[in-house]
Amino acid sequence: MKLLGISGTLIGDKTLSVVKSVVDQASILDPELKTELLDLKTCSIEFCDGRNFADYNDDTRRAVEIVLAADCFVIGTPIFQASMSGALKNLFDLLPITAFRNKIIGFIGTGGTYQHFLVIENQLKPIAGYFRAFTAPDYVYAHREHFNERNEIVDAGILERIEALASQIVRMSRGLRAN
Hints:
Layout: E1 2-7, H1 14-29, E2 34-39, H2 58-69, E3 72-78, H3 86-94, E4 104-111, H4 118-130, E5 134-135, E6 140-143, H5 156-178
Protein name: NAD(P)H-dependent oxidoreductase
Keywords: Flavoprotein, FMN, Oxidoreductase
InterPro entries: Flavoprotein-like_sf, FMN_Rdtase-like_dom, NAD(P)H-dep_FMN_reductase
């Protein structure tokens, strides 16, 4: 089983820090789990414009192929203007409707205000539904106060939520594979 962590931003390190923490925790829970990180900041993904998939650049095609090869996901985004990042939305637009079908997604949000956690409930979970994915019941929302100056998570409550989310993704994905 392969878990893909997606950091859906072109700027900053907090989102990647939380995504990586969930992926690392999942690896501890299931040592046989294969993991990969897709950090959109390191890719030159083109804007989705409806052209033939083969006509996009190598980074765009590779990112989509990485997503299609995964069995479960932890997807993180910073919250900008009460919405997910444009980079993550663009990746979603590039994917075929079957990309997440019957797979587990756990969501992460990072933001500057405490109210932005609602983006996970009101935007990300409905997108997962559109893709016919299953979502982990819990999610992680981290505010700037939950990090130290090196963008490491220092808040005990957030660390507990990371453990819970990793556990749900692993358990739910195993359950789906068993059927």
